[in-house]
Description:
Elements: H1 2-17, H2 31-42, E1 50-55, H3 62-73, E2 79-83, H4 86-90, H5 95-108, H6 118-129, E3 134-141, H7 144-150, E4 162-167, H8 170-175, E5 181-183, H9 189-200, H10 211-221, H11 225-235, H12 240-252, H13 256-267, H14 271-284, H15 289-298, H16 303-312, E6 317-318, E7 324-325, H17 328-339, E8 351-352, H18 355-364, E9 373-375, E10 399-401, H19 405-408, E11 425-426, E12 432-434, E13 442-445, E14 454-456, E15 464-467
Parallel strand pairs: 1-4, 1-5, 2-3, 3-4, 8-9, 9-10, 10-12, 11-13, 12-14, 13-15
Antiparallel strand pairs: 6-7
Helix pairs in contact: 2-3, 5-6, 9-10, 9-11, 10-11, 13-17, 14-16, 14-17
Amino acid sequence: DKTKFIDSIVKEISTIVGRVPLGVAKYPVGVGRRVEKVMSLLSTRSDDVQMIGIWGPGGIGKTTVAKDVYNSIASQFGGCSFLPNVRETSSKPDGLVHLQKTLLSEILWKENLVVFSVDGGVNLIRDRLCCRKILLVLDDVDHGDQLNALAGECGWFGEGSRIIITTRDKHVLTAHRIDQVYEVKALDQGEAFELLRSYAFPGNQTKGISRDLIDNILGYANGLPLVIVVLGPFLCGRSKGEWESTLEKLAESPNKDINSVLKISFYALEDNEKDIFLDIACFFKGRHRDYVTRVLDSCGLKTLIGIQILIERSLVTINDKGIVQMHDLIQLMGQDIVKQECPNDPGKRSRLWCYDDVCEVLSEDSGTDSVKGIVLQLPRQEELDISPSAFTHMRRLKLLIFPTAQVSGGAICLPNDSSRGGPICLPKDLRWLEWPGYPLSTLKFNAVPKKLVCIDVPGSRIKEFGGNSK
């Protein structure tokens, strides 16, 4: 017995000494302040088993914070495991079984553990770890099944154990009854500048790069560490002209490395939420939630639950005035998804919002039944030439919004009723029409618009509804 006792002590000491700290970040700017917030939730002196969440959008630094916390407190536990990329690993064949085996192997220091099934792994974790004080980090969780397989209940683990879950989806935490959640905030301006300086200017030498250029990059990043970590090294040692060219390129299309991380959240959505997300990104950022809900409900979407899911996935926020907000890069990601539907032909995309694209499609009759919505905000006085047959092939068009000149500062010009073959003809499946100051005397549909919910045309010249409308 004495020998076994000594062996157990030696093994425990070897376990602690043998732990290799996780790599956190090359330049951990702002990480310490965020780690302190997580530590305040952990209450490491308590003997209760505790689960906490670290929540935020892709690229905000959740994993970095979790790694630093892990390194800081690992020595206080009899067994530790950091499982990275849970979402990705669990999607592979037997992925959850592999994660269960890794968890047990790292904590028990046994390489030859056999796990035949997820249910079997659950029983092993519960039986082997129920009396151990362990630290477990589950990184990038996106589904409740992953938590049920790896950390189903606090009772699976010994007194004083701590389980940390990082996720983009707050509802995963809520459904698992985890109410201690730290939301990772974006870098403030000072932190963002310090991080960019560390990557782009070794030795603090800006080498002719103006503060305006630096501020433009920081404005593009808008506090998202991932952007600075990607762009900082790329811009290091480059000339002023190359910085300017990079900004011009980013204005036209997002960086692929950044975009690929952000798109993960989009592709995890159901179709209803995907449509709502794209409509907000293309049309409704900055509009009131109630207005957005009315419009999208009219298009057959379930907007109330959809927006709530987008909030939980860190894709949109609602400010205290009820305005729908979205990080600029997340908005650009959504708009890029729509543009990539058909890069060279806007008439074959689902949504149109840019003046040049709208002008091309409406003046050249190049719209197709792919187009579901057109919302045009004119920033200045522009002439928009709309062909009478512009909407003929847009059979799936549900949403058409041309704001007033007073609101947008622009104006929409149409040909007279008699020119180019008469007034325009709108599709019968249109659900929502806003066209203040509609300049023609006739508003015509190609058939009775039975699904039309809103027709808002104040200050228009309409005297009659033509065609097959009633």
